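Input chain follows. Return structure tokens only.
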Amino acid sequence: MSKTLKVGVIGVGGIAKTHMPGWAASEHAEVIAGSDVVPSVLEAWGQLHGVTRLSTNPADIINDPDIDIIDVCTPNMYHTELVVAALDAGKHVICEKPLAPTPADIRRMIEARDRSGKMLMTAQHFRFKGSSQAMKRELETGVLGDIYHARSWMLRRGWIPARPGFIYKKNSGGGPCIDIGVHILDLTLWFMGNPKPVAVSGVAKAPLAHHEGAFSQWGGVPVPQDMDVEDFAAAFVRFENGATLILEVSWLLHHDTPGEDMQMWLYGTEAGAHWPQCKFMETHYQTRQFSNRTLQLINDTMEPHALECVEFARCVAEGLPSPVPAEQSLQVMSILDGIYRSQAAGREVRLEE
């Protein structure tokens, strides 16, 4: 019987709650330890999941010789030091998105991964949805030809996470650009085959968050007026292969949706496609006809946040590549960082090699 991988979770009070069902379902892993800076939250989590190895100091978890995997679920600005320390301690690491708040931080992580020879994965859970998996398989047949343009957006109407981990740059590194833009951008680049981005023209600002009476439908709370990140961002991205992308993200847009509108359009030389409908639009030039078809989807077998943990453990156990390589997260963050740099410069910016 193969060894059961032992998991330690750092940051148990937020998104970690969605990871725990995956660890519980995994045939390859089990959670044996946890760390959080809030003792009461840590104790309650430990009691709920039957975990007794608890510490408010993450170093205790990272340096525990019994632990094989570290699951980093802290606010964004704390990812880098924890991930690098865990890799240097010889642990495999799955880290919540965004992998790090800057491209330079991700490069540090890649260097640590290469030193350790361990696996590093970004928890981009939308890749694990049934619709995403079906779309990716179809795209890999080459049905679109060369994808030369994409449009993608993730827009919310008044659904801002008005909590310190999200709305203050010292904790998050940015607003919706980093929080939800990372989701739709990662998925779009993955569907496009991860072409190399070379330039970005973008804006990132907060036209609504400081409006008198601004509030969030998420808990019905007011938006703190000292919030210092953007609530809207948009960009035009150029890629080395000549392809282009238009990206839009917002927490507070006056948009006709009750909650969240997440969509993507891909345009190729042979056909177009839409996600999440998984619809393909084809032109038959010989007969001068158009046709649309929609993939037949199978319902998700598990909630995607949980499934990503199951797949990570399986890949570690079976010696397979990382399901979400850090190099792909570096492309994502290079673009998002480029949006912030473009906003500051007031012009298009080139991305680092």
